[in-house]
Amino acid sequence: MSVNFESVLNFIRSKDKNINFKLNSQDDLKTEISDVISDSREVKSGTLFCCIKGEKSDGHEYAKIAENSGACAFLCEREIDSNLPQIVVKNVREFLGEVSALVYGNPSDKLLMVGVTGTNGKTTTTYITRSILQASGIRVGLLGTIIESDGIIDKDADRTTPESSIVQRQLASMVKNNCKACVMETSSHGLYFGRIKGALYDVPVFTNLYPEHLDFHVTMENYFEAKKLLFTNYTKPNFIGAVNSDDPYGKRLLDEFTKNLRGFGLKNVIKSNTTLNGTELVIHNEGFSDVILHSPLVGDFNIMNTLCAVTAMRGRVDDDAIIEGVKNVPQVPGRLERIDLPNGACVFVDFAHTPSALKSVLRVIRKLSGNDRKIISVFGHGGGRYQQNRPELAKSASEFADEIIITSDNARDEDPMKIAEAIASGATIPNKIILDRAEAVNYGLNNLKSGDILVITGKGPEKFITIKDKKIPFNDSEAVKNWRDSK
Predict the structure, then answer these.
(1) Where in the chain is the domain with CATH 3.40.1190.10?
(2) Which of 170, 283, 363, 462 pairs with 300 at a CA distance of 20 to 30 A?
(3) What is the pLDDT of residue 277?
């Protein structure tokens, strides 16, 4: 797909008549634009280079590099010293997503778009939803915390919701690969900063809301308003979404968008039985027949994740696809990922990094394993994140674990020991600080007896530990498997 410079100019002027632009001749209006890129390292011929001024770098300073790499035009916030055509706006990010959508042929219009937002459960819900849609016989793209899939190739994700130009390029790739749907996590940061601008959703989904990212949003109300943007700003006409009506914020969404949203909650689970090996449940949705499901996922929160995905897909696909999709959902990396050990002990690796999520994980494992099995909980907390959660994490772990090993997470620019000490202040059971995460995991493994359970949380599928500007390779599951295979 490509459009000419004049089309981009006219589109932006339709949004803001006060913008400025620079041409060397009328022929510049015919310049063909085939890509929209804000990273000078990715520029190629036919690129509209977007100069974004961020916290650490200013894209305007890379304009000459972009031009030498094949950029054919600029979208910027101040005039560039260049003969290339350029459009000067007050805020490049404000236009980035919609301009990208224009250049890439408005790909979200050609896909069934499912957007999942909330604090906990987003990733697992997207995996279940994708599995259901695939069981209906279509190719599906996925954008989320763990992977980015264009329907053919899966690759590791850099962040939950990438820059809007990247989102549009990924959606265009899905369309090119004959995908009929995209299932996507939409983070509060991504929504707040407009990273999904240019995309509209058929099925917006809300899982729940708990205190997180309050270092950025400050209040729960601000956090909720960011999540709510998915429903107010990014939906297609006549959208039908799904929200957790057991959650007070979900109830608010349901009350506001009564005609467009289906509520789901524990009242919709007619029957359930979960063990450490899987879950059987019967789900009721108003207006549909009850459906009997068998899932390899375990835990009450995965019952809710399954209910969420099923409610979102009722009427979109037939019940056979729902049954098959739930049955065959793959193990979500780092989401209650089970690893059995030769001595009869086992390990669970999970992304839970908030007090509520950690409590949910440990509660489920305690409930399913009984009180006669020792549970050791290993976790830390990220630097630059909501500090009040640190002692609360230890309080949550203290309710269901027998022992806590406090370790480092992504400390970033904070002192790892100060983070660990803040966590320890909330512990009411035996605890030990081992800052080296590999050493902490090995210590826990070395102290497991037959039947014991080690629960490692906070990082899930992440493959690096971030300390200041360094990214140190490390993955919890790989560390466990390496220890197991060495025995």
Answers:
(1) 107-327
(2) 462
(3) 85
Task: Identify the bridge partners of residue 112 per DSSP, sorted by sequence position.
Answer: 181
- In sequence order, what DSSP letters do the residues of 389-445 get, joined into one string? HHHHHHHHHHHH-SEEEE-----BTS-HHHHHHHHHTT--S-EEE--SHHHHHHHHH
Q: Which of 166, 51, 192, 21 is nearest to 100 (CA)?
A: 166
Rounded distance between C-alpha atoms, residue 347 and residue 106, angstroms = 45
What is the residue-wise DSSP string for 334-383? TSSEEEE-TTS-EEEEE---SHHHHHHHHHHHHHHH-TTS-EEEEE---T
Q: List for the chain the helix, strand, coil content (%; round to 5).
A: 40, 25, 40
How far is 188 from 260, CA to CA, in rounded Å?
A: 21
Cβ atoms of 24 and 18 closer than 8 Å? no
Please identify, in words, the CATH class of the domain defined by 107-327: alpha beta
What is the pLDDT of the chain when averaged over all its residues? 95
pLDDT surpasses 90 at 35: yes
Straight-line distance from the first to the last Cα atom of the chain, in angstroms, rounded to the nearest whole number: 55
Q: Which of 407, 429, 405 is nearest to 419 (CA)?
A: 407
pLDDT digits (tens, 9 = 90+) for 252-294: 999 999 999 999 999 999 999 998 889 999 999 999 999 999 9
Q: Which two tokens stand for residue 22?
A: 């620079």
Cβ contact 182:192 at 8 Å = no
Nearest to 291 by CA among 310, 265, 263: 310
| Average pLDDT of the segment spanning 237-246 | 97
Enumerate the CATH 3.90.190.20 domain ranges in the chain, comma separated.
337-485
Q: Considering the domain 3-103, what is its CATH architecture? A: 3-Layer(aba) Sandwich (3.40)
Calpha distance 321→471 (Å, rounded): 41
CA distance 304 to 162: 27
Q: Which of 168, 214, 222 is nearest to 192 (CA)?
A: 222
3-state secondary structure of 40: helix
Which tens digits make up the pLDDT trace of 432-447? 999 999 999 999 999 9
Its sign, for the CA torsion 328, 334, 337, 339, is: positive
Q: 337-485: what CATH class?
A: alpha beta
Q: Look up tokens 């035996």; give the residue.
A: 430
